[in-house]
C-alpha cells in the first residue's frame, strides 16, 4: 500500500473537502439540504470507493493517540504560558510527526473556518455519508483502529487518575487518596480491560461486556467526586487551578466514555454517530488550537465560574420576597442614604482642601471605602450593589432548567423581586440622601457662617446632573461597571477566605489567642468569615469611585463617576449652597438626571453581572430570549409587581432558590 505522504493518495480526499467547503459558502446552496450537496459531489460508486480507499490508507498508517487524547482537552500550562505559546505558534507553527493522524487532520481541514460547515451538516447526514462510503472494512484496518483506540483509552484513564490524585483535588474529596479511590480504580479496570482485549484470545463478549459495564460504573463514581467538589464549594471554596483541573478531568472522562462506547458497541449506526461527534469536536479543536480569543474566552469562563458561582450569603441583603422584607429593605436603604449624605459633605470639604492630585484621590477613596464598609457593618444597603450570587442564581436556573420544569416562571418571579427590591432601594437611598445633605449644610452654615459648597461649586454639582449637557450617563455607566466588579471582588475574597481556611487559621493562631482570648477570637473569626468578602468588595468600590477622576485628569480623559445616591446628596448640597433658590428648570433637569443615573447604574451593573454569570454557566441564548419575553409580558400585564409587593400566584417559596426566600 502506498505511503500516506504520497500527494497522489490524498489529492482526491483534499478535493472532496474543498468541494464541500465551497458548496457551504455558495449562495446558491444557502437553503439546500446538505444531503443533496453530498449526493451531488459523490455521484457514482467509483468515486466513493476511491475516497474510501484513500481514507483507509491514511488510517492504516497513522497513530491516533495524540488526536484522541489531546484535541479539545485543556492544557496544563498556566494562563500566560499558554497564551504566549499560542501567540508564538501563530507566527511559527510547531512541527508534528507526519505519521500522526492529527497532522493529517490539520492538513485536510486547513481552513480555520472549516468547523463551521462540519458542524452545520446534521449528524444524520454525516452518518448516512459514512455508511454509504465505508461498506466494507478490512480485518487489518479494523485491528489497527482497535489497537489505537485501546492505547488512547489507556492514556486517558492514566491521565484522569493522575488528575484525580492531585493534591488540589485530594484536599477537597474525603479519602480520595486511598486504594478505594475511584480514579485509581478506574485506571486499574481500564488496564485489565485493555490487557485482556489485546492478549486473551478467549476473552468472550460476555466477559468483555461485564468489564465494560464495570468501567462505566467507575467513571460515574469519578464524576460523582467531581460533582461533590462543585456542590460543596461553599464549604471549602474553589481556586482557579482547581477549577481548571476538574474541567480537564471532566473532558478526559467524557472522551474516555466516547472511545469505550465506540469500541464496545456492535451497532453500525451507533458507531457512525460517535465518529460524527468526534469529527466535529476534532475539527473545531484543530481549527482553534492557536486561537487567543478562544484561550481568553475559556479562561474567562473559568474565572467567572470561580468567582460568580461562589454561594455568597450577601445576596440575601439585596432582595425581598414579601411586604415585610420590602419595607425592611427600604429602611436599610434609608440608613445607607444617611451615611452617603455624610460622605457627600465630607468629599466636598476635601475638594476645598486643594490637595495634590495623588492625595486628593487617596482621601476621596478612603472617604468612599470607609463609608461603604460602615454601611455594611451597620446592616444598611446601597442601591445597585449587585452581589455575584444574585446573577449566578438566575444563570443557574437557566442552565439547569431540565431539573426544574417551572424554571421560566420561577426565574421570572425571581427577577421581578430583584427589580422591585432595587426600586425600593433606589427610592430609599435617593429620598434620604437629599434632605440629610441639605440639613448637614444648614447646620454647617449655622456653625461656621458659610456653606459646605459655595455658589460656584453648587452650580457645578447641579451641572453634573444634567443628562443633556454633561457626561452624566456614561459616568453612571462607569459607576455601574465598578459596582459589578466590586461584586466579583466580594465573591473572590469570600471564596478565598473559605478556600485558604482563614477561619481555622485565625482561631488557632497562638499570638492572637493570647491577645484576644479564645472566645473573643472565635467571634472575630466567625464575623470575618461571613463578612470579609463584602468588606473587601466595598473597600475596592470606594477606591474605584474615589480614584477615577484623578486617573482621568492624569491621562487627559473625561473620566468620572455618577451614582444615584451621591447624585441626590450632591443635589441637596447644591440646593443649600444656593440658599434654596433654584429655577424650576433646574429642579426638573436635576430630578431627570438623578433618575437616569440610577437607571444606568442598575442596567450596567446587573447586565454585566448576568453576562458574566451566563458565561460561566454556558446558558443558551434561547433561554435568555424566553426569559426576556416572559418578563416583558409580565410587565405589561402585572406592571405594579415590579415596584410594589403583591401576591404572586404562580410560584411558591418551595420552588425558589433557598437564598432568596425571605427569612
TrEMBL record:
Gene3D superfamilies assigned: Glycerol uptake facilitator protein
Annotated compartments: Membrane
Entries under Pfam families matching the protein: SpecificRecomb
InterPro entries found in the cross-reference section: Aquaporin-like, Site-sp_rcmbase
Keyword field: Membrane, Transmembrane, Transmembrane helix
Transmembrane regions listed in the UniProt entry: 361-383, 423-440, 472-493, 532-553, 586-614
Bilayer topology term: Multi-pass membrane protein
CC terms in the record's Gene Ontology section: membrane
Name of this protein: Site-specific recombinase
Amino acid at each position: 500500500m502506498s505511503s500516506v505522504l504520497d500527494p497522489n493518495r490524498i489529492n482526491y480526499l483534499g478535493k472532496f473537502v474543498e468541494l464541500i467547503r465551497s458548496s457551504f459558502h455558495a449562495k446558491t446552496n444557502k437553503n439546500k439540504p446538505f444531503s443533496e450537496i453530498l449526493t451531488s459531489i459523490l455521484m457514482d460508486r467509483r468515486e466513493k470507493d476511491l475516497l474510501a480507499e484513500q481514507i483507509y490508507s491514511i488510517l492504516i498508517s497513522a497513530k491516533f493517540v495524540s488526536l484522541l487524547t489531546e484535541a479539545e482537552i485543556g492544557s496544563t500550562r498556566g494562563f500566560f504560558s499558554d497564551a504566549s505559546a499560542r501567540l508564538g505558534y501563530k507566527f511559527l507553527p510547531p512541527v508534528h510527526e507526519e505519521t500522526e493522524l492529527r497532522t493529517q487532520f490539520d492538513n485536510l481541514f486547513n481552513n480555520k473556518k472549516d468547523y463551521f460547515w462540519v458542524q452545520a451538516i446534521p449528524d444524520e447526514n454525516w452518518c448516512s455519508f459514512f455508511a454509504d462510503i465505508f461498506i466494507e472494512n478490512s480485518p487489518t484496518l479494523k485491528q489497527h483502529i482497535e489497537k489505537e483506540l485501546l492505547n488512547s483509552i489507556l492514556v486517558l484513564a492514566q491521565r484522569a487518575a493522575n488528575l484525580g490524585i492531585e493534591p488540589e483535588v485530594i484536599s477537597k474529596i474525603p479519602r480520595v487518596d486511598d486504594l478505594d479511590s475511584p480514579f485509581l480504580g478506574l485506571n486499574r479496570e481500564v488496564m485489565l480491560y485493555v490487557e485482556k482485549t489485546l492478549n486473551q484470545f478467549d476473552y468472550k463478549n460476555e466477559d468483555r461486556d461485564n468489564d465494560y459495564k464495570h468501567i462505566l460504573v467507575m467513571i460515574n463514581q469519578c464524576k460523582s467526586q467531581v460533582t461533590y467538589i462543585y456542590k460543596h464549594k461553599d464549604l471549602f471554596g474553589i481556586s482557579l487551578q482547581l477549577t481548571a483541573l476538574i474541567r480537564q478531568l471532566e473532558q478526559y472522562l467524557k472522551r474516555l466514555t466516547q472511545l469505550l462506547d465506540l469500541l464496545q458497541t456492535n451497532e453500525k449506526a451507533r458507531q457512525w454517530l460517535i465518529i460524527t461527534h468526534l469529527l466535529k469536536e476534532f475539527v473545531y479543536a484543530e481549527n482553534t488550537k492557536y486561537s487567543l480569543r478562544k484561550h481568553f474566552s475559556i479562561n474567562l469562563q473559568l474565572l467567572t465560574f470561580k468567582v460568580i458561582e461562589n454561594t455568597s450569603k450577601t445576596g440575601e441583603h439585596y432582595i425581598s420576597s414579601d411586604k415585610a422584607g420590602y419595607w425592611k429593605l427600604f429602611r436599610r436603604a434609608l440608613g445607607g442614604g444617611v451615611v452617603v449624605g455624610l460622605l457627600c459633605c465630607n468629599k466636598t470639604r476635601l475638594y476645598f482642601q486643594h490637595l495634590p492630585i495623588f492625595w486628593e484621590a487617596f482621601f476621596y477613596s478612603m472617604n468612599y471605602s470607609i463609608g461603604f464598609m460602615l454601611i455594611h457593618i451597620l446592616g444598611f444597603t446601597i442601591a445597585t450593589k449587585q452581589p455575584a450570587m444574585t446573577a449566578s442564581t438566575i444563570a443557574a436556573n437557566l442552565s439547569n432548567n431540565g431539573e426544574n420544569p417551572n424554571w421560566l416562571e420561577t426565574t421570572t418571579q425571581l427577577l421581578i423581586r430583584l427589580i422591585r427590591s432595587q426600586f425600593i432601594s433606589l427610592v430609599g437611598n435617593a429620598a434620604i440622601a437629599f434632605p440629610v445633605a441639605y440639613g448637614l449644610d444648614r447646620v454647617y452654615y449655622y456653625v461656621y457662617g458659610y456653606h459646605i459648597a459655595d455658589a460656584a461649586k453648587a452650580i457645578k454639582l447641579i451641572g453634573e446632573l444634567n443628562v443633556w449637557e454633561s457626561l452624566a450617563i456614561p459616568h453612571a455607566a462607569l459607576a455601574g461597571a465598578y459596582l459589578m466588579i466590586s461584586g466579583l471582588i466580594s465573591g473572590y475574597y469570600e471564596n478565598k477566605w473559605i478556600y485558604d481556611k482563614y477561619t481555622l487559621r485565625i482561631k488557632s493562631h497562638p499570638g492572637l489567642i493570647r491577645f484576644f482570648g479564645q472566645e473573643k477570637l472565635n467571634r472575630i473569626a466567625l464575623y470575618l468569615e461571613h463578612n470579609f468578602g463584602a468588606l473587601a468588595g466595598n473597600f475596592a468600590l470606594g477606591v474605584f469611585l474615589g480614584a477615577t477622576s484623578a486617573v482621568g485628569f492624569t491621562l487627559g480623559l473625561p473620566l468620572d463617576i455618577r451614582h444615584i445616591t451621591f447624585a441626590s446628596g450632591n443635589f441637596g448640597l447644591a440646593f443649600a449652597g444656593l440658599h434654596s433658590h433654584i429655577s424650576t428648570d433646574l429642579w426638573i433637569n436635576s430630578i431627570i438626571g438623578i433618575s437616569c443615573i440610577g437607571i444606568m447604574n442598575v442596567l450596567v451593573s446587573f447586565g454585566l453581572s448576568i453576562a458574566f454569570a451566563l458565561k460561566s454557566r454556558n446558558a443558551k441564548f434561547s433561554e435568555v430570549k424566553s426569559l426576556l419575553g416572559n418578563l416583558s409580558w409580565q410587565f405589561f400585564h402585572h406592571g405594579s409587581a415590579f415596584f410594589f409587593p403583591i401576591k404572586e400566584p404562580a410560584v411558591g417559596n418551595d420552588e425558589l432558590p433557598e437564598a432568596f426566600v425571605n427569612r
